[in-house]
Amino acid sequence: MVALFFLSTFALFAPSLALTYYMDTSCNPYPAVGRALPEALTMARRSNARLGANDPDIQVAFQRIFNTGTDNGAAVAEVRRIMGGIADMTETNDRESSGVRIYCNEDRWSLQKDRERTNKLIKKNSSRNPGDQIWIDTTNNIPYAGPPGCKVQDRIGQVFHWPRLPLQASHSTMSLCKPWIEDRIATIKEQGKRDFSRLRLTGAGLSQLLSFIVLHELTHVPPFRTKDVHPAYEWNNVVSKSTADAIRNAENYAFFGLLAVLGDANYKLEHTKPEQNWSGLLIHTPTIWPRQLFNNVRSIS
Ligand SMILES: [Zn+2]
């Protein structure tokens, strides 16, 4: 019985390993989303490829971001599982069959209707504190406790899925919030020939790019399931984590993906001066490593 269960579970989930994403029409007014998504996938693809190629610059980035060397097979395997899975994602126009459904507003949510109470101690949904009220995504059948996604001021994005039930977890949704989706420079590619040397990752600039934000959110999606491990954001916190926390924290993957793509544009982390170790200083590197990998990469400039 147990064996049969595992077999049938595997059969059910094996085809869904290559995830598809669906872009809701609510994102149509925000073309920046359509530009950021491919770059987020490129960040994941380049992370995976460079990790698989004994690339010395990405080994430095890995050491800094995941607080362990690329000789840590388990850590490398987990990062490659997540980045490889994101890299393999493809777009579909069919919401029903899609694995990840991307939204640019919260119109799909309704407060759960009050039920006939069998236990008088349980408050009606409509009279609870806002943080305890149950919302239902009526389009995708996903519940959430508290104001979802962009209904919370200053939230950048959020991923929703059923927390435990494996069958229901086969799809998830992502909310992307204003002002981050409004038309602006959304990708590294759109920065043209900008000189990134002497820039520090401790600054907010590159981690506010929409492609960076989308990669962060994609790593939360099942089956990747990263968390926001407090304090989750900003370079200083990312590089201060233990390996166990770094490997679970979404923002660490976003920075790693960022460095993988910056490498294609001839930028890497300064790492020869110990005093610069944690500063996230970017320097220009004349050689791209290894060259043969870059034949199929679109030019960033
Ligand atoms: Zn997050």
Question: Can you tag this structure with a few keywords?
Answer:
8 helices; 3-stranded antiparallel sheet; Lysine-specific metallo-endopeptidase domain-containing protein; 10 strands; metallopeptidase activity; disordered C terminus; alpha/beta; MetalloPept_cat_dom_sf; 301 residues; binds zinc ion; disordered N terminus; Collagenase (Catalytic Domain); signal; 5-stranded mixed sheet
Could you please describe the fold and organization of this structure?
It is a single chain. The chain has helices spanning 2-13, 31-51, 56-66, 73-87, 210-218, 235-238, 243-246, 250-264, and strands at 20-23, 90-91, 100-103, 109-111, 134-137, 142-145, 157-160, 172-176, 267-269, 282-284. It has 301 residues and is of the alpha/beta class. It folds into two domains: 18-106 and 153-289, 3-Layer(aba) Sandwich (Collagenase (Catalytic Domain)); 107-147, no CATH class. A hairpin with a 4-residue loop joins strand 5 and strand 6 (142-145). The longest helix is centred in the first third of the chain and has 21 residues, at 31-51. It is elongated, with a radius of gyration of 21 Å. It starts with a helix and ends in a 17-residue tail after the last strand. The protein binds zinc ion. The site of zinc ion (ZN) has 4 residues, from loops.
**Cα-to-Cα separation, first versus last residue:** 57 Å
- If you consult CATH, what is the topology of the largest domain? Collagenase (Catalytic Domain)
Share of helix among residues? 25-40%
Gross geometry: elongated
What percentage of amino acids are in beta strands?
Answer: 5-15%
> How many DSSP-defined strands?
10
Compute the CA-based radius of gyration: 21 Å
CATH superfamily of the largest domain: Collagenase (Catalytic Domain)
What ligands are attached or bound here?
Answer: zinc ion
- Helix/strand-derived category reads alpha/beta
The total count of helices amounts to: 8
Total discrete domains: 2
- Quaternary organisation of the protein chains: single chain
What letter string, H or E per element, gives the SSE order? HEHHHEEEEEEEHHHHEE
Largest sheet: 5 strands, mixed
Q: Supply the CATH architecture of the largest domain.
A: 3-Layer(aba) Sandwich
